[in-house]
Structures are given as C-alpha cells and as structure tokens.
Write the structure tokens for this entry.
Amino acid sequence: QKLGCIQLMVALVDNGSSEQATRTGTVGFVQRSTSTVMFRHLRYDIPFNYSRLNNQAVADCADFAPEHLLFLNNDVELIEPATITKLNDFLAGNPQCGSVGCTLLYPDRKIQHLFFIPGCKLGASHPFRGLPFRPDDPWVRSPRPVGGCTAALLLVRHADFVAVGGFAEELAQSAQD
C-alpha cells in the first residue's frame, strides 16, 4: 500500500461544523491514528451537498488506494459489533454485487431504511419506512438484491464507485445514493 502498513483509513468529513464538541472529538480521533489505522480530518466549508462532499473526500484520499469504501453517517449507531465485517465479507464473496447496506432503524425500532426503489416519486421511495422492525421478517433475515441502499451506511468497491462516477452531485440531498 502507498501509505506503508496502514490498513484502514477513516476520513472524517466535516461540512463546516461549529460545535466545540465536534471539533474536539475530531482532533481526538486524528490523534488516535496508529501504524495500522489512520484518521484524516477533511473540512469542506461549502454549501451542503452530500454527493459532492463524499466524492471530494474519496478524491482527497486517493493516495490510500482503498479496495472498499464505507460511507457511514455520524448519526448511525452500530448495535452489532460485527456489522461492518459482515458487510465486507458479503461484498468480497459476491463479485456481482455493486454495493451492500443494511437495515437502519429509528430509535423507536421502526424502519428508517430497508432499501429503496429508484424512480419512484421524485427520486426514490423507501418501502416499509415507519413500520415496526420485525427481525423474523424474510426481508431482514437474509441478503437480497434491491434497487438501492441508503448511503447512510453503504459499502462499495472503490473501483465500482469510480467507474460509475461517484455520487450524483446534481442530487445534493436526496436519492444521490
């Protein structure tokens, strides 16, 4: 790898945060970099555009030359410690799969994102949003092909992300994933 033995890079994308706790936390993460895990703070003081911010972060971290990219919003809480490992293993074992995501829940355990259907409404539709989460439901028990996954938690091969041109920047806040 171009950066020596570093195996993981975490790019903290900051879109003009002004809260002191955020600034302190970001500095704390960057200082926790080790010989195998690097934290990078990328501050972009530009109008919010989810697609542009993440595309720029991928470009600014090109020196790392990752195999996979994980997009993870700061409001996502991983309940199961092995979530990212499971996503990585699934993507690695399924070369026909373009990306992989998972079910996201609101704090009240109702479905926030299960998958989305491109082309519905203005950009996409999130079926089952707001319904109670049922772990025994076939839709959540095993992986399946869907029209799309939210980029709030999305794992994709770097080469595939680059091949499709990244996120659609003309879609600043919705359906860009």
About this structure: Strands lie at 8-14, 37-43, 68-72, 99-101, 104-105, 111-113, 117-118, 124-125, 153-157. The chain has five helices and nine strands. The longest strand covers residues 8-14. Residues 20-31 form the longest helix (12 residues).
